[in-house]
Amino acid sequence: MAKITLSNLRHSYLPNPTGPADYALKEIDLDWNDGGAYALLGPSGCGKSTLLNIISGLLTPSDGRILFDDKDVTDLPPDQRNIAQVFQFPVIYDTMTVRENLAFPLRNRGVNEAKITERVAEIAAMLEVEDMLDTRAAHLSPDNKQKISMGRGLVRDDVNVVMFDEPLTVIDPHLKWKLRSKLKELHQRVRATMIYVTHDQTEALTFADQVVVMQEGEIVQIGTPVELFERPQHTFVGHFIGSPGMNILPALVEGGQVMFNGQAVSLEGKVTGSGGVTQLGIRPEFVSLSNAGIPARVRKVSDVGRHAVVETMVGETAVKAVIEGNLPEQGTEVHLAFQQNQTRLYRDGWIATEVVS
């Protein structure tokens, strides 16, 4: 396996890019440690697949270098990068048995039959498909086909990285959680460097130790699932991760105070920087109903099981709160309290509060 380094990486599909807007990938500097589980997360068109294709060698970047264990592989073709890739649609041979499919990447590289038998048995046990080994792949269900596709990526023990490009897209929703759990278990057992590309926050947060969140060709935050939830560095991260997403509210900075709808709001720490468009960010989980605070009117109450999402209006601005226990009725006048250590200012989208330890 390998440590992967992306250094000053940029890419444009235009022959003569003249500015940042011409780049599908803005400048990226990134290190992925050997044996880690990583996710590239973002909406369609944010640059995830472009970055994956650059790492795999299907695309040469306009600028920058790619290194595997400090070896420059930028100009190497895919077959010389020692990469396994699992795609959206299962890549297996329907006319072959499961055993033959799992053995194929090893036979293709001249591995001896004893080693092939041992490795196929090991991967089949991990995937829990031992009873299918002599079944033709054409007769498998879609989720089992994708399992075998994953197994083909994992059967080699000499790869630098295993990359998953939206591997659960075609899987029925009720089966996705099984494959997500299986993939996490496989990583813990084989400790291969794995990169998982997805637009689905649940897939990314349940699989990865570190998540790279992308927007419009730019990395806006790298962190653990807990870090992304508890302290988003950009409003996009707060909005994209969480259900419901973070409240992003218009704010003014006046005389050292941050004002929302004419009321002063206490923040997690000191305000940094100046100018720009300022907004408050607070997750609904840290908004509560109280006897005093910011006046609001309840617009909607959605009971989602263990808790309810109460949508209120503060003037013309919607503010959501996650509430347990007694719920207000629609149209009720309430007051909102923001948990101070989870309330922060953003300036032009980027976090603009500093917590002093």
TrEMBL record:
InterPro entries: AAA+_ATPase, ABC_transporter-like_ATP-bd, ABC_transpr_FbpC, ABC_transpr_MalK/UgpC-like, Mo/tungstate-bd_C_term_dom, NA-bd_OB-fold, P-loop_NTPase, Transp-assoc_OB_typ2. It is an enzyme of class 3 (hydrolase). Keywords: ATP-binding, Cell membrane, Hydrolase, Membrane, Nucleotide-binding, Transport. GO terms for molecular function: ABC-type ferric iron transporter activity; ATP binding; ATP hydrolysis activity. PROSITE patterns: ABC_TRANSPORTER_2 (PS50893). SUPFAM superfamilies: MOP-like, P-loop containing nucleoside triphosphate hydrolases. One of its GO terms (cellular component) is ATP-binding cassette (ABC) transporter complex, substrate-binding subunit-containing. Residues 4-241 form the ABC transporter domain. Its EC number is 3.6.3.20. Belongs to the ABC transporter superfamily. This is sn-glycerol-3-phosphate import ATP-binding protein UgpC. The lineage of its organism: Bacteria, Pseudomonadati, Pseudomonadota, Alphaproteobacteria, Rhodobacterales.
